[in-house]
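Annotated sample (chain length 183).
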Amino acid sequence: MVVQALRTRQPAVLEDLLATYGREIQAVAYLIVRDRADAEDVVAETLIAALEHGPALRDEQSLRAWLLRIATNRALTMRRRTARVVRLEVVPEMATAAAGGIGDSDSRVALLEGIAGLPPKMRAAVVLRYYADWSVDECARALGKSPNTVKAQLQESLDRLRAALADASAGQPTGTAMEAPNV
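Output written by the structure step:
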């Protein structure tokens, strides 16, 4: 019913799409753009694009994947546009190792900081693979890359995230794990 409404471009379908997929689209967008307002803009742009291109949707089973692909592409485009803008943010300090290691909230902060430190395309691969729970092939199609490229990006991303978490547990700033090695 939703897909049929999209195919016939009925604006009332936007409310159903927002209720069903809005939170997931916003979460995926936020993890890529790292700004709540920008993520909300991505949700709106995604739903408008879905309405405009609804007749092109062939498979009803792929609606979720199609929407997340649109959102990912919009978020990456937005990230590229705003990459030149330097944002001043206050980052909470990490708890020290004196508290007996890092706790769940500290691990979460370290993980989010590590994800934020990844290049946008690597971040998109991580978000789609591990947050949206897509297969490597689905990620590759959405990102316009080969599966082997996505696997390599995921491996490099996981290595960086492990290093960021290890640094956080040792009480070091997480930014050091994201620096490229001098070769």
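Annotation: The radius of gyration is 18 Å.
Annotation: The helical segments are 2-7, 13-33, 36-53, 63-82, 104-116, 120-131, 136-143, 147-169.
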